[in-house]
Amino acid sequence: MNDLNHYIDHTLLKPEATEQDVDRVVKEAIEHHFYSVMINPYWVSHVHSLLTNTNVKTATVIGFPLGANTTNIKIAETDQAIKDGADEVDMVMNIGEFKGGNYKAVQNDIESVVTAAHKQNTLIKVIIETALLTDDEIAKASEIVANAGADFVKTSTGFSTSGAKAHDVAIMKHTVGDRIEVKAAGGIHSAQDAENMINAGATRLGTSASIEIISKN
Fold first, then answer.
1. For residue 8, which of 159, 171, 203 has the smallest C-alpha distance?
2. What DSSP character marks residue 93?
3. Taking phi first (over 0 means left), then psi (-120 to 50 degrees means alpha), and beta for anything else, what does residue 158 get?
4. Residues catalogued as catalytic
5. Domain at 116, CATH number
6. Among 78, 167, 180, 183, which residue has the fewest nearby CB atoms (within 10 Å)?
């Protein structure tokens, strides 16, 4: 597969990332034509300024990495990120409420953030943290995300017990069909990993191993 770069959100979410690290990731994304640069909210304004007049988008995370922020905080984060120049936001669903079976609260939380993003023409993905879910729960969470009006359902933060698995992506894709798209993230380290995720139904990949993936493709 020769166009893997166009699937990739080139990601740097490590808490210890410095401005020099961020600048390096931006430079790599421009050079290799990755889809976006995914960074923590603090860096959005800086990254957006560096990506002006390029085709690379600025993306960030909301309620990250636990999903346990209040809805109002997630909305405020979203509004601030968009104000700072984010083209896309990846929010974490309220995993505890989902595991507790409080699906209405989970959907309301997602819908509120989706509304905030879409009101400003910003694409939104929702991370369900597949490593913490059973197969049935992955399907249920994907259904909730689709019903809430998000643009993507996403596997993982990369900060839990494991990242994306092609098996999980396939469940997500089977559940949402063509209603929304699927993003695989976390633990994608090789071109083979990337292709496995795409073959399972992912249309976007989140990885910090982007250079390695495309260089061995």
1. 203
2. P
3. left
4. 90, 154, 183
5. 3.20.20.70
6. 167
